[in-house]
Design a protein that fits this description.
Elements: H1 11-21, H2 26-29, H3 36-44, H4 51-61, H5 65-70, H6 76-92, H7 96-113, H8 116-132, H9 136-149, H10 158-170, H11 174-189, H12 196-212, H13 216-230, H14 237-253, H15 257-272, H16 277-293, H17 297-311, H18 317-333, H19 337-351, H20 356-372, H21 376-392, H22 396-412, H23 416-430, H24 435-438
Helix pairs in contact: 1-3, 6-7, 6-8, 7-8, 8-9, 9-10, 10-11, 10-12, 11-12, 12-13, 12-14, 13-14, 14-15, 14-16, 15-16, 16-17, 16-18, 17-18, 18-19, 18-20, 19-20, 20-21, 20-22, 21-22, 22-23
Length: 442
C-alpha cells in the first residue's frame, strides 16, 4: 500500500504505484512512442510526460489521463461544476452564507479558465446571495457582468431579467429598471408568436418600477392592460396573484385604500390555496401596510403576526426588514413609542444603505416613535432623513405625509417658525402627487 494519498503523489509515484498494483513491468507497460526507459525517467521524477504519453499510459493502466496527472478522478471543469452545483443547492436550502467562499473561488477559476458559462452561473448565484443580504449594488454588478459575458434572451430567462431589474430599483435607480423592462417587453412583442404569460410577467415588473419612480398613472395603466390581456388566455393562479398584488400596491400608493385592500385579499385567497408560504407572508405584509394607512393598526398587527409565522425563523434580510418597518408603523399609529423605536431601529440595521424608499419609511417610523417619547431633537433629524430619501425616490405622497408629521412635531415642540417652513415644503411636495392620489378614497 502506498505511503502517499493520491493527492500527495507525484505523477511518477502514481505511475509506479498503478503499474505495480497491476503487476506490470516497465517493459510490459511500454508502447510505441512510450519506451520503458521513458517510463523509468517519469517514475524517477526526471521527466514530465507529454499529453500523448499520459493518454497512452492511462489507457493501459485503466484510469483516466486526468487521474494519472492529478490524482483526481474528475477533471478541473467537472470539479468546478460539482462545487457550483453544491453551492447552488445550499442557496436553495437557505444556507447561502456557507456557499459564498466556494462561489467566489469557482468564479475566479472559471474566469481564469475562460469558462464563460460557468462564470455566468457563479455570478448569478452570487447575485442571489447579495440580493438576499440587501447588497443590491453588488447584485447589479454581478448580473450586469453575467449579461455582458454571455448575453441571453429575456424570453427564456425571466427570473434573471426580473432579478436584475429589481436590483436596479432596490439600489435606488428605478429609472434604469423602467428602461430595462421596457426593452424586454419590446423584444417580446417583436416575436413572431406572442408569449402572453411572459409578457404579463414583464408588465407587472414594469409597473413596480414605474411606481418606484413615482409614475403611478402609467403604472396603473400597465397593470390594467395586463389584466385585460389575462382574460384572453388561461392565466395561472400565480399570474393573477401578481396582477392583484401589483394593482393593490398601486391603489394604496394613490390613496385608494379600500380598493387596494379588495385586491390584496383576492391575492391572499389565491395564495392560501397553494403551499407558497413566502408569497402568502408577503401578501399579509402588503395587507398590513394598507390597513395601517387606513387607520386599522390593530388589524395590521394581526396580519403582521401571520406574516412572521409564515416567514419562519430565517426570513430573507429584505423580508425581515419589511416586517420590522410595518410593525413600527402600526405601533406608531397605536401610540406605542418604545415599541415603534425598537422596531424601526431593527429595520434600519437590516436595511443598511440599500432600498432607499424602505429606508425612508423606516426613518419616518423612527421619527414618529421618538416624537411619542418626547425626543424632538432626534425625531427632527429622522424626519429630515425620511423626507429626503422619499423625495429622492419620487415617493411624493409618502414624502408629503412625512413632512406633515414633521411639521406637527415641530409645532408640538413649540418651534412654530420651523414648523411653518416644513409645512410649506409639504405643500410644495403635495403638488407633485398625482391627482388620483389626492382624490378621496372610494
Amino acid at each position: 500500500m502506498s505511503p502517499y494519498s493520491a493527492s500527495e503523489e507525484s505523477i511518477g509515484q502514481r505511475l509506479k504505484r498503478l503499474r505495480l498494483e497491476r503487476h506490470l513491468s516497465q517493459r510490459e507497460l511500454a508502447s510505441p512512442g512510450v519506451s520503458y526507459a521513458y517510463i523509468s525517467r517519469i517514475e524517477a521524477g526526471t521527466r514530465q510526460p507529454s499529453v500523448k504519453a499520459l493518454r497512452r499510459l492511462a489507457t493501459k493502466l485503466g484510469v483516466t489521463a486526468e487521474y494519472l496527472e492529478t490524482g483526481s478522478e474528475i477533471g478541473a471543469t467537472e470539479l468546478r461544476e460539482l462545487r457550483l452545483a453544491n453551492a447552488e443547492l445550499a442557496i436553495r436550502l437557505g444556507d447561502s452564507q456557507a456557499a459564498l467562499d466556494s462561489l467566489e473561488e469557482v468564479l475566479a477559476e472559471s474566469v481564469a479558465a475562460g469558462d464563460r458559462h460557468m462564470a455566468t452561473r457563479a455570478r448569478i448565484a452570487l447575485a442571489s446571495v447579495a440580493a438576499e443580504q440587501s447588497d443590491h449594488r453588488r447584485a447589479v454588478e454581478l448580473l450586469e457582468a453575467a449579461l455582458t459575458s454571455e448575453p441571453f434572451s429575456p424570453v427564456d430567462n425571466l427570473d434573471f431579467y426580473g432579478e436584475l431589474g429589481r436590483s436596479y430599483a432596490a439600489s435606488g435607480h428605478p429609472e434604469k429598471a423602467v428602461e430595462f423592462f421596457e426593452r424586454c417587453l419590446e423584444e417580446l412583442r417583436g416575436l413572431p408568436h406572442p408569449d402572453s404569460p411572459t409578457e404579463t410577467r414583464y408588465a407587472v415588473l414594469l409597473s413596480y418600477a414605474l411606481s418606484d419612480m413615482g409614475d403611478l398613472a402609467r403604472a396603473e395603466s400597465v397593470v390594467q392592460d395586463a389584466l385585460e390581456s389575462a382574460q384572453d388566455y388561461e392565466a395561472d393562479p400565480y399570474m393573477r396573484v401578481r396582477l392583484y398584488w401589483s394593482l393593490a400596491r398601486l391603489l394604496e400608493m394613490e390613496g385608494k385604500s379600500s380598493a387596494a385592500l379588495h385586491y390584496v385579499r383576492r391575492a391572499i385567497a389565491l395564495l392560501e390555496a397553494t403551499e407558497d408560504t413566502i408569497h402568502l407572508a408577503r401578501a399579509h405584509l402588503l395587507c398590513a401596510w394598507i390597513m395601517t394607512s387606513q387607520g386599522k393598526a390593530k388589524a395590521a398587527l394581526a396580519q403582521l403576526t401571520k406574516a412572521e409565522a409564515l416567514l419562519g425563523p430565517h426570513p430573507t434580510t429584505d423580508d425581515a426588514a419589511d416586517l420590522r418597518v410595518e410593525w413600527a408603523r402600526a405601533q406608531a399609529a397605536l401610540g406605542n413609542g418604545a415599541e415603534t423605536v425598537a422596531a424601526a431601529r431593527e429595520a434600519l440595521e437590516l436595511l443598511g444603505d440599500s432600498r432607499p424608499a424602505e429606508l425612508g419609511a423606516a426613518h419616518e417610523a423612527l421619527a414618529e416613535g421618538l416624537t411619542l417619547q418626547g425626543d424632538f431633537a432626534e425625531a427632527g433629524e429622522a424626519f429630515a432623513r425620511a423626507v429626503g430619501l422619499l423625495e429622492d425616490q419620487r415617493q411624493w405622497r409618502e414624502a408629503t405625509q412625512a413632512c406633515q408629521a414633521w411639521g406637527r412635531m415641530l409645532r408640538h415642540a413649540g418651534r412654530d417658525e420651523e414648523a411653518l417652513d416644513v409645512l410649506e415644503r409639504a405643500s410644495e411636495l403635495s403638488l407633485r402627487v398625482a391627482p388620483a392620489a389626492a382624490a378621496t378614497d372610494r
